[in-house]
Structures are given as structure tokens and as C-alpha cells.
Amino acid sequence: MAIFDAHCDVLYRLHFEKGLSFAENNGLHITYDHLKAAGAKVQCFALFIPAELPQEIKFKTALDMIDVLHREILDKHPDIRLVKSKADIERLKDDEIGIMLTLEGCDAIDTDLVKLRTLFRLGVRSVGLTWNNANAAADGAQESRGAGLSDFGRKVVEENNKHKVWTDVSHIAEKGFWDVMETAQYPIASHSNARALCDHPRNLTDEQIRALFERGGVIGITFVPSFLNESGEASIADILKHIDHIASLGGEGKIGLGSDFDGIETTPKELTDYSRYPVLIDALQKHYSEAFVKGLLFDNFVRALPE
Ligand SMILES: [Zn+2]
User: Fold this and answer.
1) Which CATH number fits domain 3-304: 3.40.50.2300, 3.30.420.40, 3.40.50.700, 3.20.20.140?
2) How far apart are the CA of 192 and the centre of ligand 1, in A?
3) Which of 71, 87, 149, 198 is in Cβ range 3.0-4.6 Å of 153 for a Cys bridge?
């Protein structure tokens, strides 16, 4: 079955860790072979720029990661294509896989909308305002101040709206979440779970999840073990619990997946890398209808893409 996965950190690892290769199975959760074997259709690749890098090199680092995407992935694998729209996804041939670029935190653009628009032109179709800490746009979910959007952050959301780009609330502090709900036309949560089941600041409360659904957003269930189970160890059974809970909040048709592969050191025990997706799909098919599973795996995120 076709899979749309809304978040992974392959580009971060390829850029910063020497010796890794997308073409070989030598340590990445997501490789060419894994995507092909498991039935990938669209994989979102995040640009994640570590907060500790000097500001002067953050934008350059984002460009370097896009360069890695082209040199190491797109140029070497003609059946992998950069997709920038729903139409691009619909045009993918049966044996082709789409890669969609996303920005995880606005640290790379500092306070410069030219940099944001440049990233749009290079293919970025989803923008999260923050990672876990604060930046010029907003505070992240683990910044103790917990402030909402700055004036610049509001401009970023307006720019996302104008360019029909998703605004991703997965890492933002709660106050900023509600600011985004008031301003974003295309909000999503690419990789977050239910706070009601696992009390972690990166997870969303029922009230937040309902608000996201009311605004047409989709939530990507993530495989981060500590967001699935407070013990820090998780299994597919935990993923199903989060899906059940979120479905009960009116989430039928609004739940997807955002694995966070290559952004996590440990995984749920049965999902050690992307090649194991079929094990999850088997479990989903035992619990839910065919239409529900198809929606969760692919259709729901694709439907939420702005036309
Ligand atoms: Zn993340």
C-alpha cells in the first residue's frame, strides 16, 4: 500500500554523519532499498538545522542539505522525484517515489522572508516555526517561557498562506499553537501524538487536536518511543492506541503518519527501520477498515495539501 510519511531526518544525518549512504543499507532508517521494499509513495524530508550552529551558517546549512538531496538522492535515482504539489504527486508513475521538502523550525531563515521564499522556490512545502527551543518566529514546546508567535512569526504564517504552504505545529509551544490556529490557512502537525495518552510536551492535548481538525489539519502519528509511551519503550500496540484515541476525537480521515525515522535513536520495537512498515500495515489492517488504513497511510495527508 502507498505510504505518505510526513517527517524524517535523513538529510540531517546524511549531511552531518560521515560514511552514511542513501544508496546502501548502512545505518540509515530510510534508504533507497527500504523505501522501495516497503511501498513508499511520498516521503517528507525535513531541513532541521541544529540550534547550536552559528546563525551566520544556518541558512547555508539548509542549502547544503538541499544540495545533498540532489546529489546523493535525486541525481542517483531517477525514479525518486522532488514533488512540490498535489498535482506532482498525482503525476508520479507507479514505480516512482516522491520526496517533499519541509522546514523544521525557522532558525535557518532568522528574520529574513527572502530566505523563506528562496526555500519555497527550492521546493519547501511545509514550515514548522520552531524546533523545541525559541527563535525569532516563536517559542518551541520545550522553551520554558512558552511565548506565542512574534510579529515575524505572524509574517511567516502569512507567507505560508500566500504560497499555499503547510504551517506545521508539531514543535511549537501551546500559546504559539493557538496563534497559528487563528492565522494559518493550512495547519498540520507532521509528527506528534496524543497528550491524553502520553504526557509529553511534544504531544497535543485533545483540545488542540480538535482545533486542528476543525481547521482542516491532519496529525501525523509519530514513532518516537517517548511520545508513544511514558516508559520510553514503545510498540505497534502503542501506535494503535494513539490512533484509536485520535480517531475518537473526530479524527477519521484526519490522521496520518510522521515516523521521525533518522531523527530518533530508538524506535518502537517492531519498527526498527522503514523496511518494517509492512509489519505496521499488517497490524493496521487487522484493526481498521481498508478505507481507514488507506487514508491513514496516504490519502489523508495528500487530501490536506493545498490545491
Ligand atoms: Zn521533530
Assistant:
1) 3.20.20.140
2) 9
3) 149
